[in-house]
Amino acid sequence: MLLLFLPFLFIGFTWKNPVYILVVFLWFIVIGIALLGWIGAPLKELYDFMENLRLGVPTRNRLSRRADIYGQLAQGLERIERSHTSHLSTLHGRMEEIQAILASMSEGVVATDITGRISLINPAAAELFHLKPGEGVGEFPYKVFPQSELGEIFHQTYVKGYPVEKEIIWHNPERVLNLHLALIRDEVTEELRGVVAVIGDITKIRQLESIRKDFVANVSHELKTPLTSIKGFIETLLDGALEDKETETKFLTIINQETDRLNNLIADLLDISKLESGQTDLRKRLFHIDHLINEIILTVEGRLKDKQLNLTKDIQAAVVDGDENLFREVIINLLDNAIKYTPEGGEISIGTSQNPERFEFFIQDTGIGIPEESLPRLFERFYRVDKGRSREMGGTGLGLSIVKHIIERHGGKVTVESQLAKGSRFAFTIPFAPKEVE
Ligand SMILES: Nc1ncnc2c1ncn2[C@@H]1O[C@H](COP(=O)(O)OP(=O)(O)O)[C@@H](O)[C@H]1O
Ligand SMILES: [Mg+2]
Hints:
The chain is of the alpha+beta class. It contains 11 helices and 12 strands. The chain has 4 domains: about 5-95, no CATH class; about 105-200, PAS domain (Beta-Lactamase, 2-Layer Sandwich); about 215-280, Signal transduction histidine kinase, dimerisation/phosphotransfer (DHp) domain (Helix Hairpins); about 285-438, Heat Shock Protein 90. Helices cover about 50% and strands about 20% of the residues. The strands form 3 sheets. Strands 2-1-5-4-3 form a 5-stranded antiparallel beta sheet, with helices on both faces. Strands 7-9-10-12-11 form a 5-stranded mixed beta sheet.
């Protein structure tokens, strides 16, 4: 205070002297600047401290060690910063947890915000829709999924204001998607915040359902055909044909053939169902496949002769580790087809070979061949290139699907190469077979 009035203490001070007035004026300016510095410096330091907090830069503030009002303010700010940081790290942890949950979900998740733009796409959804990480976020659904009704469904859910469940077909590649859309609401105000969709890929389930339906329809049809025929002939016989010995024998022969067909069909169906349900235990052991092949050829010698088919063998590998009875079924089916679908005078060759990794069996014929478009479906149950011809020959259309099942049960693979009117080559490989029967 004394300092403030210092100029007035000069001897001879008078307001009339302009020099004195100037001195007083300058003196107050000096005092003012000093005061500003004294109050302003810590304020500036506080300001920097707050700025650092805002930017998230770690601070060590020496102000907080002061006992005055600035120190108290700085300590307060530091307390706020500490609780802020701990809140932030809790939030961060929660976010990471939610991200991990979303990332590990097998269902796709897509969410939109209050503006209708996409706010989240989890990895499963990104994969499902072939989007790169981050792609599509911030855009409207109808822009991200232009070729589907997905955008419209998001919009409708938001407008209607209640959850929606829907099945849609996604094209390219074709998939059946099951959508569950729900509304995102503010926990407190219940206000609408957006829409979240959980998307399941149910293509496999629908395919299996359709295969099962086809299977039931096919089985019924296959059972009905011989039964209708049997019933027809029995009725004709009862209507008087029994009196004619020749007709009677002819009809009974047909009835006998049809009964055989029914028997074959039921036997094949039982095989298939056992193989598919995994009920058949693999009785694996080492056996000589050349013996098995010879044994099977003996049973078809008559048919080979009748059709004047020439059969050659080239057995390079003889020992297989597998279920001999199942392999018998495989070879019978493949050889039976080769004989059935090769016209008179044709050639059939059977061979085996092996390398350190695989054993291979093949059977080649100079038969009617298979059109290229049929090749991918050949191993399906009941698939036949020419239904009429196959049935005429007593086929069930299940043979190749049984072959495929058996080989796959042994960890192997079946392949086919064929040219129309030239012939076919069916082959299977199974993992390495040992050289000698122990
Ligand atoms: N060696 C072959 N040559 C020509 N076509 C074949 C041959 N093997 C199989 N196929 C075709 O594949 C179909 C399915 O064979 P398969 O499942 O054994 O049924 P099936 O012999 O009872 O008709 C046959 O109907 C036939 O059209
Ligand atoms: Mg067959």
